[in-house]
Amino acid sequence: MSKEHFIAMSGSYGYLPDNVTVFERKSEAVNHIINTFELALYGRKADDLRKTGYTDLGGDYGADYAVIVRCTCDNVEIHNQD
Asked: pTM for the full model?
């Protein structure tokens, strides 16, 4: 049986994500994105991540978007950026 995990990604529209990291819990993925982009902990962007798993960064943070995707694949290593 595969184990649930969460993939935090960010990047520019129209391109593959340039930042991909895997976490065991959604809250860890949310905190990673908040810390990476220095978002307000309880601001609209952080709230959007918690509720929908997506936020538009508008290019103001060096990326256009950040997204968190739930995955249950058998091989977590396939998500590594290498």
From this structure: 0.89
63: Cα separation from own chain's centroid: 12
* Three-state DSSP class for residue 68: strand
What is d(CA 72, CA 61) in angstroms, rounded to the nearest whole number?
Answer: 30
Pick the closest to residue 27 from 51, 45, 3, 9 (CA basis).
Answer: 51
Q: Which of 3, 2, 5 is nearest to 68 (CA)?
A: 5
- Kindly calculate the radius of gyration of the chain based on its CA atoms and give it in whole angstroms: 12
CA distances from residue 36 to 13, 30, 46, 58 in whole angstroms, order as listed: 18, 10, 12, 15
Per-residue confidence in pLDDT tens, the chain, 82 aa: 578 999 999 999 999 999 999 999 999 999 999 999 999 999 999 999 999 999 999 988 999 999 999 999 888 888 876 5
